[in-house]
Amino acid sequence: MENSSEIQKFAQLALECIRREYPNCNQYFCEGEFEVKPPHQLTPAFYGCLDWHSAVHNHWLLIRLMRWYPDAEFCSAAKEAIAYNLTPEKISGETAYLQRKPNFERPYGLAWLLQLTAELREWQNAYSKEWLAILQPLEEAVKTNLYNWLSGLSIPARIGTHRQTAFALGLVWDWAKTTDNSEFAFLLEKKGREFYDSDRHYPWAIEPLGYDFLSPSLASADLMRRLLPPVEFAQWLSDFLPDLSKNQNIFQPARVDDPADYQQSHLDGLNLSRAWMLEGIISGLPEEDGRREFLQARARLHRQVGLAAVSDRHYAGSHWLGSFAVYLVTRRGFS
User: Fold this and answer.
1) Are 42 and 35 a contacting pair, CB within 8 Å?
2) What is the number of alpha carbons within 13 Å of residue 249 lying toward its C-beta?
3) Dihedral of the alpha carbons of 179, 328, 202, 160, in degrees to the nearest 10
4) DSSP H stretches of helix in 48-197
5) Using one digit for the tens of pLDDT, what is the confidence trace for 221-272?
6) What is the helix, strand, coil percentage profile of the chain, to 5?
7) Taking the CB of residue 107, how many other CB atoms lie within 10 A of it?
8) Cα atoms in the Cβ-side hemisphere of radius 13 Å centred on 14
């Protein structure tokens, strides 16, 4: 676990952006001039942090940290900021927008919204119950949009950015387990196996693909360890990445030359997400699996490099990297 100053830093990064509307880089599909409006009018709760999905996972960050550190000094400011954004009126506006725009933020941002509501369900205190009740209409719209999308999906997106399929399915799987949604869990397992069960000899050396913040290969493996029992997962991983632990060059941390560049900053996030995916993969392997030590060493290296890059120096990274850091250090997704 990180020290208190690090945790305070992550919380402060979120507090500095969840009510900061500009700069803004959301992708809105407009049907006409009537939809050309400031972000806070289009999506009145999640208008900050440059884009909708970052606003969502920064709200998750604050809720996660309040749950883990209920006596921390940032909790008062976090409660105030979240209460300002999560009101019935604002969530009604968010819900109406997603009902009109079922493709908006699908799948990445929508998966993070479900991760947010899952966190609130698990927390179970007065604040979490109030905010969850407010969010439930939006959660229902998100669930519907994702379920319809996944039901009709025949080819997964094997990329390292927002439209990647595997990472989103992992987040939604964890939400489905939290809510005991067996229908959605059945669909997720069916599609996950359909998409990735037969994957063999993944060309890991091609990664990262451009400015990834998610690893296509490790995200697939991190999903499959959720779906398969340990022995079956171990065999799948052997077929998928046969070079794992045999080639010392596999999965070296990505280098960022210009952290002020919004695309290059993705690579800082890649180091963080690789660290938690590697740890997730370890958690899915049998205790006696000989690859665990190698994977742990790689996870530690990515963790060290990734966390060192989280700062408030450049908005390119500060508006989102704290969320990835908190996901990593609080071991979200497998413990």
Assistant:
1) yes
2) 5
3) 80
4) 52-68, 75-85, 88-100, 108-123, 126-151, 165-179, 182-196
5) 999 999 999 999 999 999 999 999 888 889 999 999 999 999 999 999 999 9
6) 60, 0, 40
7) 23
8) 33
| Closest residue by Cα to residue 164 from 113, 210, 236, 106 | 106
Q: What is the mean pLDDT of the chain?
A: 96
CB under 8 A, 24+ apart: contacts of 235-238? 236/197, 237/281, 237/285, 237/291
Backbone angles phi, psi at 67, to 5 degrees: -65, -40
Asked if 85 and 100 touch (Cβ cutoff 8 Å), the reply is no
pLDDT, one tens digit per residue, over 25-80 is 988 888 888 889 999 999 999 999 999 999 999 999 999 999 999 999 999 999 99
The total number of residues written for the chain in this structure: 335
The string of DSSP codes covering 91-109 is: HHHHHHHHHH-TTTTTTHH
**Could you tell me if 148 and 142 are in contact, meaning their C-beta atoms sit under 8 angstroms apart?**
no
What does the alpha-carbon distance between residue 145 and residue 143 come to, in Å, rounded to a whole number?
Answer: 6
- Residue by residue, DSSP assigns 267-282 as HHHHHHHHHHHHHHHH
The residue among 275, 279, 251, 255 whose CA lies nearest residue 265 is 255
| Residue-wise DSSP of 214-238 | S-HHHHHHHHHHHHS-HHHHHHHHH
How far is it, in rounded angstroms, from Cα 298 to Cα 321? 20
Sorting pLDDT into bands at 50, 70 and 90, what band is 4? Answer: confident
- DSSP line for 45-59: SS--SSSHHHHHHHH
d(CA 136, CA 88): 10
Other Cβ atoms less than 10 A from the Cβ of 1: the count is 10
Q: Are 16 and 78 in contact (CB under 8 A)?
A: no
